[in-house]
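Closing statement on the NAP sub-project.
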Amino acid sequence: MKFTVTSRGDTHSDQLCEMIKKELQLGELVFDEEAPDIVITVGGDGTLLEAFHVYAHRLEETAFVGIHTGHLGFYADWVPEEVEHLVTHIIKTPYQIVEYPLLEVVIRYRDGRASKRHLALNECTVKSTEGSLVCNVEIKGETFETFRGDGLCMSTPSGSTAYNKALGGAILHPSLASMQLSEMASINNRVYRTLGSPLVLPQHHTCLLKLLNDVSVQVTIDHFNIPNYDENVDTIQCRVAEEKVRFARFRPFPFWKRVKESFISE
Ligand code: NAP
């Protein structure tokens, strides 16, 4: 089996990475950064998000596992004290795969540029960089509402505990192939009206945001901006992607337990 290890870049994570690499090689696994079967990330959820985008072109052949060297993560759910145990599991046990849904985002431009397709593990956000964002929200080809406000966030179920949660969105179990649309400070009065609640859409329902005013917008996919402040974005289309992200599971750690331990108490 081929593996790679990525680090957040701090000393502790780097040292753990080196230790894991050495132990797995002693266990006769092959270090391969180009085409790994398993990607082990050491750091936090942000580290796993970065690794996801590095290997997004070969999701069917790649499984991820995350170790957190900070606070408990949703993707990074192993602690450094468990690393030896994890390494033994990776060497000896055929692991289970758990698949989570992803978000497909297609951005179309007004200036003739080819459309771009992206996959998000957490979410896509659209924000105006000057004044309010005004856009039509279409669901399954029908106009649903005209949004006016700071921006919109379309998240995956596993991303529902990230930015979406800060916007008052619901936490969705990752077994639900769905996406969630949540608002950032919508203007609601007798002239402008939006639903005001987060919406959960099932697989194969498309949500299209058509920008109506000439403001430059910032579109983010997980931790990166694409590209900064673009005035020529015409539409942003989101739906549940056909691809899924695969996590290697060596022991049960139910999602609701992770939610409780992250947000309520250990
Ligand atoms: P960051 O701004 O350095 O950190 C964002 C925080 O979100 C980190 O604590 C990260 O955990 C945590 N996080 C990432 N994915 C998560 C998930 N699925 N569930 C719960 N927490 C999660 O940025 P980053 O580390 O590169 O992560 C990018 C993400 O930050 C974006 O995808 C977005 O969801 C989130 N974000 C949140 C807000 C907000 O809540 N107001 C604003 C902007 C961006 P670790 O410390 O374990 O890495």
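The chain is about 20% helix and 40% strand. With this model delivered, the sub-project is considered complete and its resources will be redirected to Aim 3.
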